[in-house]
Write a structure and sequence with these properties.
Length: 208
């Protein structure tokens, strides 16, 4: 009788193991293969630009071809020339390094961070010819990723005069370009208005 019980238990264990294995295979195929392929297909058909990295050509137009791209609308670049709008600071690697995306991890009362912010504020105020009190926070603080491609309209506004002067353009034309590349709150309520620096600078280059 004992041997019969053992055999029965082994048979039940085998059945349960095979059932578990079948479920593992089914869900592996469903969630590990079918779902990713379906999501990729929908993205490529419905949102090809976004699905391929939101790439931008030198003329500011969108592309899905990496060989034609000069950057991504989702990743900041370190524009430093006086004729360009500047992004917010970056703590990612040596700056805007996509392989080292990170914040400084310094607290708001950290003396090193406080000193750095004061230095940045003085530098931005001198460059833009404004009072330090007019320098917005995003001009002197890095984002959590260090790759934020956008700045506030306030930071863009204090850069208009410099960019217009360096490019020999009317201030009104540069202000119009900023307005054209300013996005409002997502769904009207999420986030804040923001200006995409890469797309704005490329548009100005294309207009020269």
């Amino acid at each position: 009788m004992a041997s019969t019980t053992v055999a029965s238990d082994l048979a039940a264990l085998t059945r349960h193991s095979l059932a578990g294995l079948r479920m593992l295979l089914v869900f592996t195929l469903l969630l590990g293969l079918a779902y990713p392929l379906a999501a990729t297909a929908v993205g490529q058909v419905a949102f090809p630009w976004q699905a391929n990295g939101s790439l931008v050509r030198s003329d500011g137009s969108h592309t899905t071809d990496r060989s034609e791209a000069v950057g991504s609308a989702l990743v900041a670049q370190g524009f430093t020339g006086a004729e360009y709008f500047h992004p917010r600071p970056s703590a990612a690697g040596d700056g805007y390094d996509t392989t080292a995306s990170a914040a400084s991890n310094l607290g708001p009362l950290n003396p090193d961070l406080v000193a750095t912010i004061e230095e940045r504020k003085a530098a931005v105020a001198e460059l833009e010819g404004v009072d330090p009190s007019e320098v917005p926070a995003d001009a002197v603080t890095a984002s959590g990723s260090g790759l934020d491609p956008e700045i506030s309209p306030a930071y863009a506004a204090i850069q208009v005069a410099r960019v217009a002067r360096e490019r020999g353009l009317p201030v009104a034309d540069v202000e119009a370009a900023v307005a054209a590349h300013t996005a409002g709150r997502t769904l009207g309520v999420l986030g804040d208005p923001r200006v995409n620096v890469l797309e704005l600078n490329l548009a100005l280059d294309a207009a020269d």
